[in-house]
Design goal:
Elements lengths: L1 H20 L1 E4 L6 E56 L9 E55 L38
Antiparallel strand pairs: 1-2, 2-3
Length: 190
């Protein structure tokens, strides 16, 4: 018999201690009270993305044109005319041979040096520094606490009576407070 009283006393003490340890929170927006039933610590993966300026190098081809002198020999014909003697009627037995003159061209080649400018294209690779905005994503574990709440009424006595209100009729003829419309439909022939 003594054992029963000791066990009952322990149970009452434990029940009172658990009721004493319960916490209540009030939502500031609605004014409703919630009882915190459990708090479970845990970890959650959090992802952070930051925009970082990252330099990079771009190699581009640059063409430069330079003119270099080029020398070449140009041969041009030069024609000169002169009078040359010749024997007229030399082989003619019926005429007397005589000395005649005729105009004869003489061609020679003169050499002259010409200078021309030849374009020479040079290609070179040029490095150019640029900056790009690159998103860098990092992940880390953060400590979170999962809180379970149960809504209680404003007095805090019964959590299930806070949501009950006046009963509303479902179905029936109570919703027919006005007469139905008396005109016809516009879909048929008139």
């Amino acid at each position: 018999m003594i054992h029963r009283h000791v066990v009952a006393g322990l149970l009452v003490t434990l029940a009172a201690g658990s009721a004493w340890a319960q916490q209540y929170e009030t939502d500031p927006a609605t004014g409703r009270q919630y009882m915190v039933t459990s708090r479970i610590p845990g970890k959650q993966l959090q992802t952070d993305t930051q925009i970082v300026n990252q330099p990079y190098t771009v190699y581009s081809d640059r063409a430069t044109v330079e003119y270099q002198p080029s020398y070449r020999n140009v041969y041009t014909p030069v024609t000169e005319y002169s009078w040359e003697p010749y024997m007229a009627n030399r082989w003619n037995p019926f005429a007397q041979p005589s000395v005649g003159y005729h105009y004869v061209p003489h061609t020679r080649w003169d050499v002259r040096t010409e200078t021309t400018q030849i374009p020479v294209t040079r290609h070179e690779t040029v490095a150019e520094q640029r900056t790009a905005q690159v998103p860098v994503t990092t992940q880390r574990w953060v400590d979170v606490e999962h809180v379970t709440r149960m809504a209680v009424n404003n007095t805090g006595s019964d959590p299930f009576t806070a949501t009950a209100s006046a009963p509303k009729p479902i179905g029936g003829v109570a919703n027919l407070s006005q007469d139905p419309p008396h005109q016809g439909s516009t879909f048929g022939p008139k």
